[in-house]
Structure formats: C-alpha cells, structure tokens
Amino acid sequence: MYKKFNKKRIAQVTGLTLAAALISPMVSAEVSGEIGVTSDYRFRGVSQTAGDFAVQGSIDYSADNGFFAGAWASNVDDESYDADVEIDIYAGYWGAFGEDEEFEYDVTLTYYTYPGQDESSKYLEANVGFYFAGFHLAQWYTNDYANADVDLHYTELNYSYEFIENWSIDAHVGYSYGDGADLDWGEDYMDYSIGVSTELAGVGLSLAWLDTNLSDDNMIDDGPWKNEGTVLATASYAF
User: Where is the signal peptide (predicted)?
Assistant: First the structure.
C-alpha cells in the first residue's frame, strides 16, 4: 500500500486507506494514532513486503498553529537494505486559504529510516500538498534518493467521492521520474489505483486495485519489489 496518507504525506499513497489522504490534515491541537493491517505494503506501486501482509501504525501531534509531527512504522521485506522494519519520521506545517478557507495545503519533510541498517538506507524527502473539494494534489522531491546522491520526483493526484453515506470511491494516479526512477527501473513510470472505502464500528476498511505501467522487462510477479497488479485490502483503527 502507499505510505501512510495522514502522515501529511501520501501513505503513501503514505493513512492506511486512500480516502485518508483527502481528509483535512488537522483540526485542532491533539495527539492521535492509528494502527492497521494491509494485505501488501505498496509504495508507489511497488511492494515493500514481497507481496505479503504488513502491520502498520503511527503516532501524530498537531498544534493549533499548523505545526504537525509524527512517526509511522511498518514491517518490510526489502532485500536492498536487508531490513525488517521501516520507521518514517516527519514534520511540517498545515494551512488554509480562500474566502471560507476551502483550500488547504501542507508542507512536509519526511525522513525514511530502516533501523539496524547502515546509512545507505536513510534519506530525506520534501513534499507540498494541496486539498480542495475531494481532490489532493502533491509534489514530492528528494535530491538524495536512497542516499545514492540522485534526485527523484513524484507527482500524484488523488480524488475521493462519497457516493452514499459513509462509502467513498477513491482514485489515485502518481508518476515517478528523475535519476532515482532510472536507478531503480531504468525508466520513469506511473502507478494508479481505484477502490472503495468505508468505516464500520470505528474500523476503516478499503479495497482497491493497484497497478503500474512499468515495462514488461521490469515486471516482477513474486518476491521483493513485486509490482504486478494486485487487489489490496486494508483495515485500520484510529485513536
């Protein structure tokens, strides 16, 4: 799945469901958290758990003045870093503008870490996101992807539409480009998803189809970096 969305990142694609990306990043000063499980941890279309399930959680602090910070964690199965756990630390600022403050934005710095591994598994990424009427547009950038001194850009557009009470259709499209994409795959590529989400008895649920347009030569149907299309199921509980 995408990295947790309510990290003010995008879950990836960064809450445990796509709809979480379209919720206002914060309302008032508070400490909150979320824990969940997903059938596959996909980041920008690529599995970080070799196609297996993941348990994920976060803790967040948001202040009245717009500042927020937090941490998000997941199990991983990443042969590049020989890692078992990913912990991302992030902080940023949220604001709103417009006659009725109907436009919202956030600016975030995220530090990706894999505890127990060497420095090559850590890097910093920045993003700017805008929210309006169910849409979420975000631009991500790092000049040191995977600590390899190469740049990586990621542009994404998300949309959530409540078609009946408490049920939403969620759509996502993202594009990875720059030297970092070339380092991983030798090509720029797009990832996309379409799904539905709801909440039952306080548990957020979602079901989505995810895929990429990576070339046939880069398709992986099993094991680490699995990227073939898949149905992704998630459940999460916020507290």
Answer: 1-29
pTM of the model: 0.88
Residue 211 CB partners (closer than 8 Å, separation 6+): 45, 191, 192, 193, 228, 229, 230
Q: Which residues contact 135 (CB under 8 A, 6 or more apart)?
A: 22, 157, 158, 159
**Parallel, antiparallel, or unpaired: how do β-strands 167-177 and 189-200 relate?**
antiparallel
Cα(11)–Cα(3) distance, integer angstroms: 3
* Sequence-distant (≥ 6) Cβ neighbours of residue 108 within 8 angstroms: 7, 8, 9, 90, 91, 92, 126, 127, 128, 129
- Quote the tokens at residue 203: 């548990």
Give the SS3 label for residue 224. coil
Give the separation between CA 238 and CA 138, rounded to whole angstroms: 24
Task: List the chain residues with pLDDT less than 50.
Answer: 1-24, 26-27
Give the structural domain span for 72.
Answer: 5-238
Q: What is the CATH number of the domain that holds 51?
A: 2.40.160.40
Q: Any residues with CB less than 8 A from the CB of 101 and at least 6 apart, and which?
A: none
